[in-house]
Amino acid sequence: MHTITATDFLNDFRTMSTFGATTGGGVDRQAATDSDAQVRLWFQAWLEEHGFQVHFDAIGNQFGLLEFSPDAPYILAGSHMDSQPLAGRFDGSYGVLAAAHAALQIKEECERSGEIPPCNLAVVNWFNEEGSRFTPSMMGSGVFTGKLDLEAAYNAQDLSGTRVKDELERHGFLGDFEMPAPTSYAEIHVEQGRGMEDSHVTIGLVAETWGAKKFEVTVRGDQAHTGSTLLKDRRDALFGAAIIIAELRRYAESRTGAPLQASVSTMEVLPNSPVTVARQVTMNLDLRSPDWETLEAAFKAVKEIIEGAEREAKVEVDLDVTHEWKLSPYTPAGVELAAQVASELGVRYQRVQTVAGHDSTNMKEITPTIMLFVPSVKGISHNEAELTKDEDMLAGVEMLTQTLQHLVQGTLA
Amino acid sequence: MHTITATDFLNDFRTMSTFGATTGGGVDRQAATDSDAQVRLWFQAWLEEHGFQVHFDAIGNQFGLLEFSPDAPYILAGSHMDSQPLAGRFDGSYGVLAAAHAALQIKEECERSGEIPPCNLAVVNWFNEEGSRFTPSMMGSGVFTGKLDLEAAYNAQDLSGTRVKDELERHGFLGDFEMPAPTSYAEIHVEQGRGMEDSHVTIGLVAETWGAKKFEVTVRGDQAHTGSTLLKDRRDALFGAAIIIAELRRYAESRTGAPLQASVSTMEVLPNSPVTVARQVTMNLDLRSPDWETLEAAFKAVKEIIEGAEREAKVEVDLDVTHEWKLSPYTPAGVELAAQVASELGVRYQRVQTVAGHDSTNMKEITPTIMLFVPSVKGISHNEAELTKDEDMLAGVEMLTQTLQHLVQGTLA
């Protein structure tokens, strides 16, 4: 019988990366698009071929179960295979495939030794982690952990008005499986920053997730003729929005002290006509920092920037908080366990923080959770040029395998 | 027999304004939408009821002909009934209805007197003057005057990918009529600025159209994660675009000397995702001035602003000229004739310039053209709150009627 190898992992990774592949070496696999459906069907076949039982739950999370003994509790490991538009092939997908290979290695080890572990093992491909097509992000894990209402998720629409529920149904991913709550969860992901590369470490043990404040900004002006309406008579929503975007970035870059990330990346302009001054602009505004005081100070600065924009562009601005959370720790015993495993494996590791949200950010609220990182070359993320080296991917699979070996023994339960 | 009256005009104007009416008192009648089709069918019925022969040409221009004698040359008068999104009910539509009522008055006068004028008379509702759904603007008059290629116009697509030709066909406006080149053209329109209101005049005689330079601006950055990518590593296309928009407006407002209008009003952001830094922003950039030196200086300033944005946001910017023209006179003899008519009528008038483009801007290149304005309250334009007072509308109809009386005598031919 064939035993799963590192070469198998790299081959499977290359196959997986062909679904929704882009000419720039990345993937475009937004949630519940045809390419997302294709990679899920491929993964289903892979799981079934290797002895996993595959089920979908009501929000389209894809589970592959290895039942070692009936009625034993489950350990869960995974990530997501959906992507941003024109994104890298590692983000999320690497973690799902790593979990599947790690689980398979454990199954093969059990079959060799004849030993039955106290916990069963399942892998998961969470639905719509990215949130680019359907908001909010981390949708599948949000519904699974009870943070997000199922009906609200079903009714989320993309820009063409297509609903989540209809797309899940169309692809056959609207299931009725109820995955038992796992007694612990593990996830491995690419870092998406360059801290680990700069420190020359192979494995990051995520100890905390940064705090964040996320907003929807609505700039309200008035339509006018771009030719005949005097500048002083205009209430130009796009001018107001531009001031906010430019000044926010300059504020964030001019600061010293705790790190702060500040971004605006979406914009809807009404009426978006070449000869009509914009009456309304809607945009996101995203602040992230490990330090809550820094976020509060940034919030205050944003309000001042907005007041300046209101005066200069003669517009009115609504600033609505959509999400906020403080610096939040991962399970300390999980970080300890991962440190012990990394030590035993002799890999270079360090404790890190995550700026990006992950499905594990939801999972750690309901179960002991271990989050691991492997390095991203130059920290490039949400970009076709995203890269994690083969040897780092393989070190991560080994690290996750050994971690799961502990978890199926009930170590964190 | 009923003789057409001022009351009829105001009643017809109110009826016309119900097609595509918005709750804010305006209309939303973008080119070749259902509401544009409805107002055209209503206008067709009105024309036929009053003895006009109605024809559509290959680009969907709607003509209503009054043939006084076979083989006589035609005088043409009109404007457009399509609108910007959420626009006013006067822009364009007033001019088409004014032309129809003026023509009908002349027909009735001929019937009373038994006199047959040397020229025939036609009114026109040009297709897609606004250009908000399908670019370029002034499409119908552009094709009619040979400035725009018919096939290029047919293939223009809206944001959903629908083509002009298919929409014209769907509504039955794809005709094969070939309107003879008129020996002169007249158009009346609301001013869309507040110069005439400030000067307390009722009739504007448009002597010149401002020069303009219009651009497409493409800002190219690189996708990155809005959380984990350091600010100094970002090449944020939306930040670059924001700098350009804000600095352009500040430059235009800080100037002295000849007037300058500067606007950005459309924007497409890619990938427009809440967690991905924008890789590309495409936007328009619109400069208008009566003074060519001022436009050249503004063009130079735009290039400097762009260089600053490229440095600060680490982006690359393409600036492509899409349209440009210098200050351009209307037929001087036409302005003289209109001044004589206004004098005889005893209305307050003045020579004005137009900042906005009009179908007459195309027509004056091929035939002697008279362009008239009536005042816009507070200069509000491309806005549901656009308003021209009843008495000003009626003064305009009277002014256009008397002007056309001269034109059908062959005065400008």
Explain this structure to me?
Two copies of one chain form a homodimer. By secondary structure, chain A is an alpha+beta fold. Chain A is 36% helix and 22% strand. The first copy, chain A, contains twelve helices and 16 strands. In chain A, the strands form three sheets. In chain A, strands 1, 2, 3, 4, 5, 6, 14, 15 and 16 form a nine-stranded mixed β-sheet that branches. In chain A, strands 7, 9, 10, 12 and 13 form a five-stranded antiparallel β-sheet that branches. In chain A, strand 1 and strand 2 form a beta hairpin. In chain A, helix 3 crosses helix 12, helix 8 (237-254) runs antiparallel to helix 9 (292-313) and helix 10 (332-345) packs across helix 12. Chain A starts with 5 loop residues before the first helix and ends in a 6-residue tail after the last helix. Chains A and B meet through strand 8, helix 8, strand 9, strand 10 and strand 11 of A and strand 8, helix 8, strand 9, strand 10 and strand 11 of B.
Please render the helix and strand layout as text.
2 copies of one chain form a homodimer.
Chain A: H1 6-16, H2 34-49, E1 53-56, E2 62-66, E3 74-80, H3 93-113, E4 120-126, H4 139-144, H5 150-155, H6 164-171, E5 184-190, H7 195-199, E6 203-209, E7 211-220, E8 224-225, H8 237-254, E9 261-263, E10 267-270, E11 276-277, E12 280-289, H9 292-313, E13 316-325, E14 328-329, H10 332-345, E15 349-354, H11 359-363, E16 369-374, H12 390-407
Parallel strand pairs in A: 3-4, 3-5, 5-16, 6-15
Antiparallel strand pairs in A: 1-2, 2-4, 6-14, 6-16, 7-12, 7-13, 8-11, 9-12, 10-12
